[in-house]
Specification:
Bound molecules: S-adenosylmethionine
Shape: globular
CATH class: Alpha Beta
CATH superfamily: Vaccinia Virus protein VP39
Distance between the termini: 36 Å
């Protein structure tokens, strides 16, 4: 299946903030329940340890993605680093909740952050969960190049794939939205409105989920992007690992300065 760069509704400036937040809240809940990123702990923990990283800047964080359980799990594995959540459209309620629940081990940047130009005031190893496909090839390359230019490590993890099974799961997502919405925290009336009164949240989740699958970079695409950087001072690793309680593997690309990663 070829990569198709169609638009996602949540990426559009005209998408109501509360609708986008309802969609990213659901993703956060889904990724926590399925522990889909659990198998990446040794990969991320390993590179953070080798790079001697003191902190993480998470890009395109949505409603905190996997961090509510991942930050403590990393700490338990001996890599106790603080995390700073960022996004182009910060989900501030989700960010504040993560901050509160982790006793501030998870912080956040309240202003929009462009992963292609991360401000120097946000130093740290960069991570990106389920968002690399939002960037066209030139932009995806710019995301990696900005990390290299800043001398920071970067790890990209994708839970979608350009495969029929992944698309099938995306087609089932609206059912999940209808079932779990009343249990998602923080509670918001707007989330109930966008799910049960004007059911755009399940529709956006369906549409964006299928488009995400079609836009996802394959392992070979990721290898080509990393090779195109000509970043001789960087060590790149890529691969797939089984995705927690899900049958869809996680595709990852991890890079860190050789001096630090060796
Ligand atoms: C599919 S969500 C993933 C959220 C989160 N990482 C997770 O795993 O649940 C994609 C996120 O990328 C953000 N995003 C999309 N385009 C962006 C851009 N150009 N710059 C920064 N963030 C962007 C969206 O606002 C959204 O929160």
């Amino acid at each position: 299946m070829r990569r198709l760069h169609l638009i996602e509704i949540e990426d559009q400036d005209w998408c109501p903030h509360s609708l986008r937040d309802a969609a990213t809240d659901y993703l956060q809940c889904f990724f926590s329940a399925t522990r889909i990123y659990e198998p990446i702990i040794p990969i991320l923990g390993g590179v953070l340890r080798r790079a001697g990283s003191r902190g993480i800047v998470d890009l395109c964080s949505g409603a905190a993605g996997p961090w509510l359980w991942l930050q403590p799990a990393l700490a338990e594995s001996g890599v106790g680093v603080p995390v700073c959540l960022t996004d182009k459209y910060p989900n501030l309620e989700g960010f504040r909740r993560a901050n509160r629940l982790t006793d501030r081990a998870i912080g956040y940047h309240p202003q929009p952050v462009d992963p292609m130009q991360v401000p120097a005031s946000l130093p740290g190893f960069r991570t990106m969960f389920s968002a690399f496909h939002h960037f066209r090839p030139g932009q995806a390359r710019a995301v990696l190049a900005d990390a290299v230019r800043s001398g920071e490590g970067i790890a990209v993890f994708e839970a979608t794939q350009r495969r029929p099974l992944a698309i099938l799961f995306a087609l089932l997502a609206p059912l999940g939205v209808f079932l779990v919405t009343p249990f998602i925290r923080p509670f918001r009336w707007s989330r109930l409105f966008w799910t049960y009164v004007v059911p755009l949240a399940p529709l956006v989740t369906l549409f964006d989920g299928v488009v995400s699958c079609l836009r996802t970079y394959s392992l070979q695409d990721m290898r080509d992007l990393a090779d195109s950087l000509g970043s001789s001072g960087y060590q790149w690793e890529m691969g797939t690992v089984k995705g927690g309680r899900m049958p869809i593997p996680i595709t990852y690309l991890v890079g860190a300065p050789v001096a630090k990663a060796a």
